[in-house]
Amino acid sequence: MSAKARTVVTRFAPSPTGYLHLGHAYSALFAWRLARTQGGHFLVRIEDIDQTRCRPEFETAIFEDLAWLGITWEQPVLRQSTRFDQYRTALDRLDAAQLLYPCFCTRKAIQAEIHAAGRAPHLTRHGPDGPVYPGTCRKLDHAERRRRLAANQPHAMRLDVTRALTQLPEPLVWHDTIHGDHQARPEIFGDAILARKDIGTSYHMAVTLDDAEQGVTEVTRAEDLLPATHIHRLLQALLGLPTPIWSHHPMVNDDSGARLAKRTNAPTLRALRDQGLSPEETRAMADRLAATSRPVRL
Ligand code: GLU
User: Residue 202 class from Cβ within 10 Å (0-12 exposed, 13-18 middle, 19+ buried)?
Assistant: First the structure.
C-alpha cells in the first residue's frame, strides 16, 4: 500500500504537567482538523512518563478543555505510564545490538567537563539541546563499566549514535509536509539519552514507540520539536518501526511575539473560558496567533 492510500491517523500528545494554553489548543486543533478533513482518526496520548511532574487533575483538565474546544477523539487514550515494559523491551533490543552504553555522569560532572573543554572551544559541539555530551562514559573501559554496574551506580542509557549510524545501509530520510524533505542527522544531538536515570526511558524512546503503537501516519507537533525527529527517524530504523510523515506546525506566540509556555504564565484555556471567551473565539485566537508567529530558528 502506498503512503498516500493509508488512512490518516493523527494524535495530540500533551503532558499533564499543567493546564493547556493556546499553543496546545492550536496543536490539538491542527491534528484533529487534519484527521477530519482526510476522513481519518484522531487520537490522544497522555505523556506521563515523568510521574513526579504529572498530576491527575491536569489530566482531567486536558479532556475537559479539549471537549470545551469542540474536539472529539477516539478511544482508547494511550497513557505512557502503562507502557514502561514495552519501552524496556525496546531498550534491551538496542542494548543487545551494542548500540547503547550506561552513562554514570551527573549533570554537574558533564557541565564541568564541558566548561573545561570551553578553554578549547573546538572540543565542544553544540546541538539543538545545548552543548553535546562529550562521550565520557562511552570511553570507559569494560572493567570499569562492569565494576560500576555491579556497584549499582545510578546511570542513564545513551545511544552510541556513531555506531548506530554505521548499521544503516543507506542515509535515512524523512518528509515534513511543511518543512520538506530531510536527511536524518541524529548526530547533531550527540549520544542522546534513551533511558533517563530516574525513569528508565525518555521522551525520544516513548514517543517513537507510541506513535508506532497507535498507528500514527502523520506526526503533528510544534516546530520547536523538529530537530528531535532526526533521532526518532533513527530509532524507527533501528527498531524496524514504520515511518510516518511529519507536520511541524508554527508555534503560537503571544501578541508581543514571546513564546507561550506553561512556565511563562501563558493564559490557560480555562482562564480564557473564565474571562468569558467562547470556544469559537478561543479557536480563532489560537489560529490567528499561529498565523502571525515568527518561525523558530532551527
Ligand atoms: N508531550 C510533548 C509536549 O507536550 C509533545 C510530544 C510530541 O508531540 O512529540 O510537548
Answer: buried
